[in-house]
């Protein structure tokens, strides 16, 4: 993979905020900002399968840029259009995206005695080759962005990827993965470690391709009890935070801010603040004022955390939620330590104009006279 020179960054607000600097206003982006709520997404996607779009650098880049073009000047970052489940695919597992159902693994992991588990543990996974399409999409997008905003790369967290690999898709019970952690804890940890190492390399190669900040999505962290989180999520999130900077050094690359998003694990905020990530993403179950107190004087930035459901509401409700966030994060006094986001990804059927109003209200209520 060749290294490229890119146009200079014209809006570095998010990167400055992620480094903990005092900034003129809080930067804004939202998870799943490129996606199916946008009419232009369906036009560009056409009849293609979801993963087909991910594997086409041209289409992935086009989809990544759609919210930047639609909400020009209102948002401060792009995030590459891809999926967390490309890692299990790279490991040799089949993953399909079923319409109106979501991701599906036709042959999930059953037990550690399972032939597939043994093969998975023994297989050498070359993420440079297997996920080359992601890096090509990042490089193409950086060029097309022309410095308008920085570009996020991302990965799923080891625990969340394990959940999908053994459950076979989304679930409410988490029966299979709970069986794994309570019946096969050592084999579970061995697989989590392997996934962690792949995540480090995958993120490093995204940075090499042009990503300027990275996020680790632990979407199912909240399914773990506090004690189980310490065993099956925290060590692997910490591994990524420690080893990604080392790998970037080995590759001769500049360091980038790292974001961790342990959705639902409100009890782990204090632990996450000591992991080595510069930014912690929070879901809408957190009270921002309490979170600010928990972080204290540690050099950690908070990201979030509006309830995505507010976008189904009235403009008055959106204004109320934004005003409450601005107050709770202590923006007027602090002028740092906050990146605006939703508490999770944009949900289906949101009207893009209501999201635009959310962005406009953040600008209006945080501008300095």
From TrEMBL:
<keyword id="KW-0350">Heme biosynthesis</keyword>
<dbReference type="InterPro" id="IPR006361">
    <property type="entry name" value="Uroporphyrinogen_deCO2ase_HemE"/>
</dbReference>
<dbReference type="InterPro" id="IPR038071">
    <property type="entry name" value="UROD/MetE-like_sf"/>
</dbReference>
<protein>
    <recommendedName>
        <fullName>Uroporphyrinogen decarboxylase</fullName>
        <ecNumber>4.1.1.37</ecNumber>
    </recommendedName>
</protein>
<dbReference type="GO" id="GO:0004853">
    <property type="term" value="F:uroporphyrinogen decarboxylase activity"/>
</dbReference>
<dbReference type="Pfam" id="PF01208">
    <property type="entry name" value="URO-D"/>
</dbReference>
<feature type="domain" description="Uroporphyrinogen decarboxylase (URO-D)">
    <location>
        <begin position="27"/>
        <end position="36"/>
    </location>
</feature>
<keyword id="KW-0627">Porphyrin biosynthesis</keyword>
<comment type="pathway">
    <text>Porphyrin-containing compound metabolism; protoporphyrin-IX biosynthesis; coproporphyrinogen-III from 5-aminolevulinate: step 4/4.</text>
</comment>
<keyword id="KW-0210">Decarboxylase</keyword>
<dbReference type="GO" id="GO:0005829">
    <property type="term" value="C:cytosol"/>
</dbReference>
<keyword id="KW-0963">Cytoplasm</keyword>
<comment type="function">
    <text>Catalyzes the sequential decarboxylation of four acetate groups of uroporphyrinogen-III (octacarboxyporphyrin) to yield coproporphyrinogen-III (tetracarboxyporphyrin) with the formation of intermediate hepta-, hexa- and penta-carboxylate porphyrinogens in the heme biosynthesis pathway. Acts on a number of porphyrinogens, but only coproporphyrinogen III can ultimately be converted to heme.</text>
</comment>
<comment type="similarity">
    <text>Belongs to the uroporphyrinogen decarboxylase family.</text>
</comment>
<dbReference type="GO" id="GO:0006783">
    <property type="term" value="P:heme biosynthetic process"/>
</dbReference>
<dbReference type="InterPro" id="IPR000257">
    <property type="entry name" value="Uroporphyrinogen_deCOase"/>
</dbReference>
<keyword id="KW-0456">Lyase</keyword>
<feature type="domain" description="Uroporphyrinogen decarboxylase (URO-D)">
    <location>
        <begin position="152"/>
        <end position="168"/>
    </location>
</feature>
């Amino acid at each position: 993979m060749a290294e490229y020179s890119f146009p200079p960054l014209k809006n570095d607000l998010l990167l400055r905020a992620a480094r903990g600097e005092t900034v003129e206003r809080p930067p804004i982006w939202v998870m799943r900002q490129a996606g199916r709520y946008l009419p232009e997404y369906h036009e560009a996607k056409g009849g293609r399968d979801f993963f087909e779009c991910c594997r086409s650098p041209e289409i992935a880049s086009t989809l990544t840029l759609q919210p930047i073009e639609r909400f020009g000047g209102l948002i401060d970052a792009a995030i590459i259009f891809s999926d967390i489940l490309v890692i299990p695919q790279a490991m040799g597992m089949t993953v399909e995206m079923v319409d109106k159902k979501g991701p599906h693994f036709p042959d999930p992991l059953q037990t550690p005695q399972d032939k597939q588990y043994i093969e998975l543990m023994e297989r050498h996974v070359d993420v440079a080759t297997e996920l080359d399409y992601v890096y090509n999409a990042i490089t193409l997008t950086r060029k097309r962005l022309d410095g308008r905003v920085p570009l996020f790369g991302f990965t799923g967290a080891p625990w969340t990827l394990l959940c999908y690999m053994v459950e076979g898709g989304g679930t409410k019970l988490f029966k299979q993965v709970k069986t794994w952690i309570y019946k096969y804890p050592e084999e579970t940890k061995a697989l989590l470690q392997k996934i962690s190492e792949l995540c480090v390399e995958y993120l490093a190669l995204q940075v090499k391709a042009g990503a300027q900040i990275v996020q680790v999505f632990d979407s199912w962290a909240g399914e773990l009890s506090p004690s189980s989180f310490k065993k099956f999520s925290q060590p692997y999130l910490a591994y990524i935070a420690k080893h990604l900077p080392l790998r970037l050094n080995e590759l001769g690359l500049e360091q980038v801010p790292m974001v961790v998003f342990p959705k639902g694990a409100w009890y782990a905020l204090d632990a996450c603040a000591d992991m080595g990530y510069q930014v912690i993403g929070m879901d809408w179950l957190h009270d921002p004022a309490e979170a600010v107190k928990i972080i204290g004087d540690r050099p950690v930035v908070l990201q979030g955390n509006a309830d995505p459901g507010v976008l189904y509401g009235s403009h008055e409700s959106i204004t109320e939620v934004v005003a409450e966030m601005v107050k709770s994060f202590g923006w007027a006094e602090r002028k740092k330590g906050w990146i605006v986001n939703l508490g999770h990804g944009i949900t289906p059927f949101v009207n893009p104009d209501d999201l635009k109003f959310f962005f406009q209200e953040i600008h209006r209520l945080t501008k300095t006279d």
